[in-house]
């Protein structure tokens, strides 16, 4: 008999913005078309297993506050099955098509890697059945190579090969499990790949190891017939002082340096962008420029905090700017919107999980509709084009095509005389944004 943890909660429906029901979508209408695609297709919303199913509210200052009923069973396999029941019930009630997971979110880690592998195999079989019943899919899978103390000095970039090879084995197991569940993508987030002090670190050697390993993963995935994408998820710090996958630009440089640019894309997380002193839209745009905008981990940070608070998205302005980049660059390559966010330690009602995800989905829906409005009904696109019009013809166009030498540029530039100011019109752009929703 399957469990029913959210008995008191009904399927979440779209009721429109006049609704004052907290357990209804006000803006996310899955079938509504935006620029020729349904919202459902644009977003591919996913639940993050680790936050929504495994989190227990513990923080460095206090013990568990959140005793989710599905995690109370003592038998390891039964507990994992209960958790999967809760996950699928939640996803169906939310109307989400996807989830994302780490290997050891699905089932508790064993005392040895061999035992973990056995356990993962058992739970995968159960989850696969639930996928067949419901049609719910995996947006991406990944390996947690950072919680186990064996990884305290890093995983693949560990100075000790014994640990690096253990990490490689764990990643192979997680990748195989992801493929078995039909995962559309596989993620590498740095975890403890980085350093605490450069004094005891051979950075070049550690990065070379990561480059070699990723190349081997590409070969392996091809042999296995994996049709999905590999994503790297940038983050500047936490848990290490300096993460190797610092931000989009750093990751793209790394992928190019190690010949991985054709096989990897990026998974951009909002709160990681802001921790790197960038905006979310900046990180998306950098990835899009390289043709590597793969997926999004949706959340938000806190302006007064310097860590990854992983709160649910409510920032409309930030989301509209992100959705402008999203629409202009043709959406995500293979990925979707994964709510890598958690309810607060003191949000202990089961309905809080629903309210949080509804708010996140509605924020993205509003952002998408506002971005569509800006692109189709305002002067925005023309204004932006106009700003660069001097490159559309004559010498500007010749320069852009690489047809002017430095001598040519000198001849043209030296004769320019006094150049009148051209306003950047930032406040006008901002007023378009502010009036778009
Ligand atoms: C942590 C990361 C992590 C990845 C998956 O900050 O966001 O949750 O998304 O390993
Ligand atoms: Ni993330
Ligand atoms: Ni994060």
User: What is the arithmetic mean of pLDDT?
Assistant: 97
Kindly estimate the percentage of residues that lie in beta strands according to DSSP.
Answer: 5-15%
Count every helix, treating DSSP H or I runs of 4 or more residues as helices.
Answer: 16
Low-confidence stretches: none
How many E strands?
12
> Helix proportion of residues, in percent?
40-55%
Return the structural class.
alpha/beta
Q: Gap between N and C termini, in Å?
A: 46 Å
Going by CATH, the architecture of the largest domain would be Alpha-Beta Barrel
Q: State the fourth-level CATH superfamily of the largest domain.
A: Divalent-metal-dependent TIM barrel enzymes
The H-and-E topology, N to C, reads as EEHEHHEHHEHEEHEEHEHHEHEHHHHH
- Quote the CATH topology of the largest domain: TIM Barrel
Key descriptive features of the protein:
437 residues; alpha/beta; TIM Barrel; 2 domains; 8-stranded parallel beta sheet; two-stranded antiparallel sheet; 12 strands; 45% helix; binds D-xylose; binds nickel (II) ion
């Amino acid at each position: 008999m399957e469990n029913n943890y959210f008995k008191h909660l009904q399927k979440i429906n779209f009721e429109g913005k006049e609704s004052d029901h907290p357990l209804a979508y006000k803006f996310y209408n899955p079938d509504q078309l935006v620029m020729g695609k349904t919202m459902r297709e644009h977003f591919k919303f996913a639940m993050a297993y680790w936050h929504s199913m495994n989190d227990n509210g513990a923080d460095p200052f206090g013990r568990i506050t959140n005793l989710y009923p599905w995690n109370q069973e003592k038998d390891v396999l039964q507990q994992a099955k209960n958790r999967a029941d809760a996950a699928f019930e939640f996803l169906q009630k939310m109307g989400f098509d996807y989830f994302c997971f780490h290997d050891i979110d699905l089932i508790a880690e064993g005392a040895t890697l061999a035992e973990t592998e056995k356990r993962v195999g058992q739970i995968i079989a159960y989850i696969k059945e639930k996928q067949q019943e419901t049609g719910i899919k995996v947006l991406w899978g990944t390996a947690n190579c950072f919680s186990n103390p064996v990884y305290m000095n890093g995983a693949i970039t560990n100075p000790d090969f014994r640990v690096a090879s253990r990490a490689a084995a764990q990643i192979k197991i997680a990748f195989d499990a992801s493929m078995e569940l039909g995962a559309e993508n596989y993620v590498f987030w740095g975890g403890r790949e980085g350093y605490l002090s450069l004094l005891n670190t051979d950075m070049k050697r550690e990065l070379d190891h990561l480059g070699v390993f990723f190349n081997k993963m590409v070969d392996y995935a091809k042999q296995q017939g994996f049709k999905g994408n590999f994503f790297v998820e940038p983050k500047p710090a936490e848990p290490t002082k300096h993460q190797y996958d610092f931000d989009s630009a750093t990751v793209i440089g790394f992928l190019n340096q190690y010949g991985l640019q054709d096989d990897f894309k990026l998974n951009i997380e909002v709160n990681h962008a802001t921790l790197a002193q960038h905006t979310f839209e900046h990180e998306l745009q950098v990835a899009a420029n390289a043709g590597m905008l793969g997926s999004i981990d949706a959340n938000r940070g806190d302006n007064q905090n310097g860590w990854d608070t992983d709160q649910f998205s409510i920032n409309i302005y930030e989301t509209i700017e992100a959705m402008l980049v999203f629409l202009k660059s043709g959406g995500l390559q293979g990925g979707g919107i994964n709510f890598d966010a958690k309810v607060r330690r003191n949000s202990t009602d089961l309905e809080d999980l629903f309210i949080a995800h509804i708010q996140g989905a509605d924020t993205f829906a509003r952002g998408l509709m506002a971005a569509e409005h800006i692109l189709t009904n305002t002067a925005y696109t023309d204004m932006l084009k106009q700003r660069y019009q001097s490159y559309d013809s004559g010498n500007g166009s010749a320069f852009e095509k690489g047809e002017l030498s430095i001598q040519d540029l000198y001849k043209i530039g030296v004769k320019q005389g006094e150049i009148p100011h051209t306003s950047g019109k930032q406040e006008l752009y901002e007023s378009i944004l502010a009036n778009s929703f």
